[in-house]
């Protein structure tokens, strides 16, 4: 019998000190217990996973000393040919946890390919409850939570980005659908400026930053209001901080 692949949610903070305390407010107790009993993890980032396990260990005894727990990385640089090797321990009957660098695995995360392969081999996949920056942003934005779409990263080139924003705004307006996307944190200001300039004045734009962290900020304004605020130098404090951008055409 094969092992179970647990999809384990991580915190949304890169460092333990950034996480709202206690940990139970972000990661359910049962998830912490399941995580503590596993000795094998497939992780987007081994360093981040060790930091998360240290948080778990503060309240629950780990199955093995941290230095003995096996952590194998699966990230954007992992070739598809390596996935079968990552799945091998599960096929041999060993439970394992798939864990993202932040938030839930397999959503905006390279772990989805491993999950698909697990299904193809009849491995039980068990998703666990935890923080998703995308869903938290939709919940808190005040935009349409009945219909929304995640679009990943938009083009870096200014002209291509402007064109894509126009496409998303038109789709949002026609379908009454909230559009979500993310940006590399050091380009947050450029993204918000592009949104304010390219979108119609009535289009609603939400910027959700550092969700669940002590520095959390969620602001929804019309594009015209954002444009005025940015011109006055009153933009959000989000430089180099993970943010989710949302828009809803009116």
Describe the structure.
The chain is of the alpha/beta class and 250 residues long. The protein has 2 domains: 4-127, Tetrapyrrole methylase, N-terminal domain (Cobalt-precorrin-4 Transmethylase, domain 1); 133-248, 2-Layer Sandwich (Methyltransferase, Cobalt-precorrin-4 Transmethylase, Domain 2), CATH 3.30.950.10. Helix content is 34%, strand content 20%. The chain contains 8 helices and 10 strands. It has helices at 29-37, 46-57, 83-91, 112-120, 133-141, 158-175, 188-198, 223-231, and strands spanning 4-8, 40-43, 70-73, 96-99, 124-127, 148-153, 178-182, 204-209, 217-222, 243-248. The strands form 2 sheets. The protein has a 5-stranded parallel β-sheet with strand order 3-2-4-1-5, with helices on one face. Strands 6-7-10-8-9 form a 5-stranded mixed β-sheet, sandwiched between helices. A hairpin with a 7-residue loop joins β8 and β9. α3 packs across α4 and α7 (188-198) crosses α8. The chain is elongated and about 55 Å long. The termini are far apart. The mean pLDDT is 93.
